[in-house]
């Protein structure tokens, strides 16, 4: 729940300064600290993702016994053991009400889900890559609620910063 008693609907992504989140169906950086951060935020929570993000995940990361996984697809015949199917963001949110949910992407799903978000958690990755999937802009109804300092990743290449935005 948020401070005003509303259900938490979180969006979480990592992006470059140009808001790139993906390229060629994958994420073009590997930051162990970001993976850990993602797990800390979403562990045990209900997660919602688009079908292409589902396809991009390694099989062992798709479903976990301690949480619900909902995949959004227009294909009524889509099925995967351990996951639930929804045909829109609205349907996924109705299906999971009143769970705290975290929307994992990708670009199409973030664009459709941002209007419902109560919190947005962003990892700013200081790298320049060309991509084909982009995060939405943070809407003006959100304020920066929390930020860490800039850290250097143990991957030896990238610097990153965690930011959290709350709906005003
Ligand atoms: N950096 C990050 O934090 C992060 C996080 C997640 C993903 N990514 C990256 O983002 C990229 C994937 O993003 P994407 O935009 O291509 O795909 P996506 O949002 O993961 O999934 C798109 C699919 O979702 C379904 N869909 C989308 N809008 C819908 C709607 N309004 N109603 C019903 N179904 C809908 C469709 O599935 P069907 O075609 O099955 O109908 C569509 O093909 C990848 O590169 C991935 O690695 C990055």
From TrEMBL:
EC number annotated for this UniProt entry: 1.5.1.3
Catalyzed reactions per annotation: (6S)-5,6,7,8-tetrahydrofolate + NADP(+) = 7,8-dihydrofolate + NADPH + H(+)
Domain DHFR as annotated: residue spans: 8-168
Keywords annotated in UniProt: NADP, One-carbon metabolism, Oxidoreductase
SUPFAM superfamilies, alphabetized: Dihydrofolate reductase-like
CDD domains referenced in this protein's UniProt entry, alphabetically: DHFR
Pathway annotation: Cofactor biosynthesis; tetrahydrofolate biosynthesis; 5,6,7,8-tetrahydrofolate from 7,8-dihydrofolate: step 1/1
Tree of life domain: Bacteria
Pfam families: DHFR_1
Transmembrane segments: none
Biological processes annotated in GO: dihydrofolate metabolic process; folic acid metabolic process; one-carbon metabolic process; tetrahydrofolate biosynthetic process
A single cellular component GO annotation: cytosol
Enzyme class: oxidoreductase
PANTHER family, sorted: DIHYDROFOLATE REDUCTASE (PTHR48069)
Family the entry assigns: Belongs to the dihydrofolate reductase family.
Role noted for this protein: Key enzyme in folate metabolism. Catalyzes an essential reaction for de novo glycine and purine synthesis, and for DNA precursor synthesis.
Protein name stated in the entry: Dihydrofolate reductase
Natural source organism: Nocardia macrotermitis
Gene: folA_1
